[in-house]
Design brief:
The strands form 4 sheets. The protein has an 8-stranded antiparallel beta sheet with strand order 13-12-9-10-11-14-17-16. A 4-stranded parallel beta sheet has the order 3-2-1-4. Strands 5-8-6-7 form a 4-stranded antiparallel beta sheet. By secondary structure, it is α+β, with helices and mostly antiparallel strands.
C-alpha cells in the first residue's frame, strides 16, 4: 500500500515505526521544512517538503503531480483533517471526504448532528444569524467561539447574548474574522470531562474518562490546567458511542468533551484525534495502549487486532498538568513554589524551563513550549485532583525580563 502521511506532530509523540510497517508499505511523509526537520533520520520512507505558504491541500497535490496515487492519506493533527479530505477527493483516494469531516470540525454542524441523535447539547446559533436578528432562545451566560477553533482560542464568555452581540458589533472579531466563522451558544455550567480512545467501525474499542482541573478557556486566559482519570462506567461508554456515531466518527482516535449536570452529560464537542498535553501519555500509562501508533496500525492494516487495554484499577489513575506561558508577556519566566510538588512521590514526570530556555509566545499545549508541565500518578482520582489544585494555588509563574533571572 502507498501511504501518504501529512506530517505535523513530532515522531516522539506519534511513534511512526510502531504504527506503520515500512517493509510492507511505501510510506511518504510530506510537511513544511520546519515540521519535516522533526522526523528522525533513522525513519524509513520518502520525504517531501512543501512551502507552507499556501493551502495545505493545494501544496500537497502539486507536490505529488506525476507520482503514483496514494492508497491511503493519513492526518493525525486536527489542523490537517480538512486538508486530508480535500486531498483524497482531488486524487481519488478512498477515505473520508470534506462532508464527512465537517461534523468534527464545524461546531454548529457538530451540535446539530448530536442533537438530531437525541443527545443534549447547549443551545446555539450561528453568529451571523444572531447578528441578523434571529431570536436567541436563552438569556443567561453566552459563549462566543469560532466554528473550527481549538484550545479555546478566540473564545469569550459574556453575561448575556445581548452583551456578546454588542461586543461583536462594537469591537469586531479577532483578526477581523468573518461572522460566518463563529457561533454563540448558551453557557452550561458544571465539571467538564473528556473521554479519549480509539474507535473502529464506529464503536469505541478502548477508552478512558478523565475530569478537568481548571478549564481550557481558563488556560487560554492564563490559568494552569490539568485533568485526572476517573472511572468509565457503562453509562459513559454508551454516551460516548452515541456521540461518535452522531458525528460519523468511524475508525479514528477521538477526544470527546462533555459537561456533567444534575440531569446527565451535555455534549460539548468532539475531535477526531488524540487529546493534547499529557492525554496520550496518561492514557498509555493507565491502559497500556499508545493511541497514535495504534491508530496508524488500524488505518494501514484493516482488521488488525486492537491491543487489549488493561484496567489499572481505582488506585492507579494518572493525571497531567500544564502551566501557560503565552499570557506572561515575556520570553522567559520566573517560577516560585515548585520544589514541594516537583519532588513529590506523586510526580511521575516534571518538565520545567531552565533559566536560559524561552517559552512560547503563542498558546501551546506542548510541554517544551511552556513554563511547567508534567504527569502525576498512580494514585486514586481524589488524591490526584487535590494535588493538582494545591499545586495550581501554590506555584507562581511570572515574566522575567531576561534569561538568567529565574528564581
Amino acid at each position: 500500500m502507498r501511504i501518504l502521511v501529512l506530517h505535523r506532530i513530532t515522531d516522539d509523540i506519534i511513534r511512526y515505526a510502531n504504527g506503520l510497517d515500512f517493509a510492507a508499505h511505501e510510506v511518504t511523509f510530506i510537511g513544511t521544512t520546519e515540521r519535516m526537520a522533526t522526523l528522525p533520520a533513522r525513519l524509513p520512507g520518502t520525504r517531501i517538503e512543501r512551502p507552507g505558504t499556501g493551502a495545505t491541500e493545494a501544496e500537497v497535490v502539486a507536490a505529488l503531480a506525476g507520482q503514483p496515487r496514494p492508497d491511503l492519506v493519513i492526518a493525525q493533527s486536527e489542523f490537517d483533517l480538512i486538508a486530508a479530505a480535500r486531498i483524497r477527493e482531488a486524487l481519488g483516494v478512498p477515505g473520508p471526504r470534506e462532508v464527512d469531516v465537517l461534523p468534527v470540525r464545524d461546531k454548529v454542524m457538530m451540535k446539530a448532528a448530536a442533537s438530531r441523535a437525541g443527545l443534549r447539547v447547549p443551545r446555539y446559533l450561528p453568529l451571523a444569524s444572531a447578528l441578523a436578528g434571529a431570536a436567541v432562545p436563552w438569556s443567561d451566560r453566552t459563549v462566543l467561539k469560532p466554528l473550527d477553533g481549538a484550545s479555546s482560542q478566540d473564545v469569550r464568555v459574556f453575561d448575556t447574548p445581548e452583551a456578546a452581540l454588542d461586543a461583536v458589533r462594537r469591537d469586531g472579531l479577532p483578526s477581523a474574522a468573518d461572522p460566518s466563522g463563529f457561533e454563540i451558544e448558551e453557557f452550561v455550567g458544571g465539571p467538564i470531562i473528556h473521554v479519549d480512545g480509539l474507535a473502529v467501525d464506529g464503536t469505541p474499542v478502548t477508552l478512558q474518562a478523565s475530569r478537568y482541573v481548571g478549564t481550557c478557556l481558563g488556560y487560554a486566559e492564563g490559568s494552569p490546567l490539568g485533568s485526572v482519570q476517573t472511572d468509565t462506567p457503562p453509562a459513559v461508554v454508551e454516551w460516548t458511542t452515541a456521540c461518535l456515531r452522531a458525528v460519523g466518527i468511524t475508525t479514528s482516535l477521538f477526544h470527546l468533551e462533555g459537561i456533567e449536570t444534575p440531569d446527565g452529560l451535555v455534549f460539548l464537542e468532539v475531535a477526531s484525534r488524540f487529546g493534547g498535553a499529557g492525554v496520550a501519555d496518561t492514557f498509555e500509562l493507565a491502559t497500556g495502549v499508545h493511541m497514535p501508533s495504534v491508530q496508524l496500525r488500524a488505518l494501514s492494516t484493516p482488521g488488525v487486532p486492537t491491543p487489549e487495554a488493561r484496567d489499572a484499577g481505582p488506585d492507579a489513575r494518572y493525571g497531567w498538568f500544564i502551566f501557560p506561558g503565552h499570557t506572561l508577556g515575556g520570553r522567559f519566566c520566573a517560577i516560585q513554589g515548585s520544589d514541594e510538588f516537583r519532588h513529590s512521590p506523586l510526580t511521575r514526570r516534571w518538565v520545567q524551563r531552565t533559566q536560559d530556555e524561552p517559552i512560547s509566545q503563542t498558546l501551546s499545549y506542548a510541554e517544551y513550549d511552556v513554563p511547567i508541565a508534567g504527569i502525576v500518578g498512580p494514585a486514586p482520582t481524589a488524591v490526584l485532583d487535590q494535588f493538582l489544585r494545591d499545586m495550581f494555588a501554590a506555584i507562581k509563574v511570572t515574566a522575567a525580563s531576561e534569561a538568567g533571572s529565574h528564581v
